[in-house]
Amino acid sequence: MTTKEKIIESAISVIQSEGTTNYSLAKVAEKTGMTKAAIFYYFKNKAELTRSLISYTIDAYEKILQEEYQLAKPHSAFPFTEAYINGNLSQLDDEKLVGLHAALIGTVVSGEATGYDWNEAYLKDFERLVPEIGEERAEFVRYTIDGMWHARILKIPEFAMEGRKSVAASLLSMIKQK
């Protein structure tokens, strides 16, 4: 692991344990075992580190989507759509990843970071969904998945034991009826 990756991992740890309000370069440096001045060699400020965290999260997401796409591609008429639904579903079961998403969304809402990278990721997904299922269904799938993310981030309890899985199965069924 490179020093830059260690800093990113430490920043994730700080955010998850202390939240975004207590997230600082000093705490990241302490967690990494470096001086704050040394952090500035890799990141010019907290905003740049935060943007790197957002990129890190999006890259991890893209990797999961690619893995799911490879699984769906041989048997599906809608491989990206299946990958999108199943990839998001698997991420929603990962406490660490959900916590990181929540914290990073918090940085965008608070104005510490911009939503540009998130918007680019959304647009890229939408552009990959539309050729398979059309604009209206792509919006429906996206908003349903977003709702699952928001419910998970806000810790809203599911009413049914298999809530997310059942909704995902219904989405896939609806799409296959094209």
UniProtKB/TrEMBL annotation:
Domain of life of the source: Bacteria
Coiled-coil zones: none
Annotated region of DNA binding: 24-43
GO MF entries: DNA binding
Keyword DNA-binding attributed: yes
One Pfam assignment: TetR_N
HTH tetR-type domain mapped to chain residues: 1-61
Keyword field: DNA-binding
InterPro entries: Homeodomain-like_sf, HTH-type_Tx_Regulator, HTH_TetR, TetR_CgmR_C
Protein name: TetR family transcriptional regulator
Organism listed in the record: Listeria kieliensis
Organismal lineage: Bacteria, Bacillati, Bacillota, Bacilli, Bacillales
